[in-house]
Write a structure and sequence with these properties.
The protein has helices spanning 5-13, 18-23, 34-37, 39-43, 62-74, 84-98, 113-124, 139-147, 168-174, 196-209, 237-241, 250-253, 268-272, and strands at residues 107-110, 130-135, 151-156, 158-160, 163-165, 180-184, 212-216, 243-247, 261-264. By secondary structure, it is an alpha/beta fold. The protein has a seven-stranded mixed β-sheet, with helices on both faces. The chain has a two-stranded antiparallel sheet with strand order 4-5. Helix 7 packs parallel to helix 8 (139-147).
Length: 273
């Protein structure tokens, strides 16, 4: 069944308070929800609480629902173009939320961060090339490297004072054999928000060894005070030229089903690739 009509009207009219939206239970079974309707395949039975995927049971913001309703009412769903207004919205969001000024021409849109990272691995490396990945990390990043025939190079993170830190000696020993480095920023799992100092050191090492950085920043907007998300590419122009940043509204606003993501790629030749 779908969310109740009462719940829909509250959300669409913007009348529900944050407390009422977060307290209201929405039954998502029967909506082709990966989280709820795929439990038998994943776990072997259905009587479980599916806390295995980054998918929230909260309704989308009223503005999103209203925009989708207007589009649905048109009734024709042919091929579409990327409007300038979308690029402007992304640019304004990055500047307002993360103090990062980008050129709209740097944007490339994709159906998701994982497909975009996959395309970047294909475009920016050759079979057999080394790709450094900090472990533990979101498992599909490992899978992408292997499935594209690249050499997976693990650089294990260390636990220090109940937080993950980079093993700099290990990293520098492995970078000379790599073409790419995948950065999960903030880090998943563990919630580590990499500091500007850590990113500066990482960027300097990657520049030194000619390693291109793929920065997955899909959870950036969920960084909570007193921490502040610092985009890797925003630190220095040379870091921007040596990196691609991957983002999406899907985690922030629970919109994964809309298949929307963007890559920020300042270097012209990389972006064309």
């Amino acid at each position: 069944m779908f969310p109740s009509d009462e719940g829909k009207s509250h959300a669409q009219n913007g009348e529900g308070t944050a407390a009422s939206l977060f307290d209201r239970v929405i039954d998502r079974r029967g909506t082709l929800s990966v989280k709820w309707d795929d439990t038998k395949r994943v776990f072997g039975h259905e009587d479980v609480w599916p806390m295995w995927v980054a998918d929230m049971d909260f309704p989308a913001p009223p503005e999103v629902q209203e925009a989708l309703q207007r589009r649905v009412e048109h009734g024709v769903f042919g091929y579409t173009v990327i409007p300038d207004s979308l690029k402007e919205a992304v640019c304004q969001w990055l500047e307002r939320r993360h103090d990062w000024t980008i050129d709209p021409s740097w944007l490339v849109f994709a159906p998701g961060v994982v497909p975009a990272v996959a395309a970047a691995i294909e475009a920016f490396s050759q079979p057999g090339d080394g790709v450094v990945v900090f472990s533990p990390v979101y498992r599909p990043l490992f899978d992408l490297v292997r499935r594209h025939g690249r050499t997976l190079i693990f650089s294990p993170l260390r636990l220090a004072e109940e937080n993950y830190v980079i093993d700099w000696n290990d990293l520098e020993a492995k970078l000379p054999g790599a073409k790419l480095l995948i950065l999960c920023h903030p880090h998943n799992p563990g919630g580590k928000s990499w500091t500007a100092a850590e990113l500066e050191r990482l960027g300097e090492l990657c520049l030194k060894h000619g390693v291109f950085v793929l920065s997955d920043e899909i959870h950036a907007d969920l960084t909570l005070p007193p921490h502040q998300h610092v985009p890797f590419a925003a630190l220095r122009p040379e870091f921007a030229a040596q990196s691609a940043t991957f983002r999406a509204p899907t985690k922030t606003f629970n919109l994964a089903g809309l298949q929307a993501a963007e890559a920020v790629i300042p270097d012209d030749s990389r972006r064309r690739a």
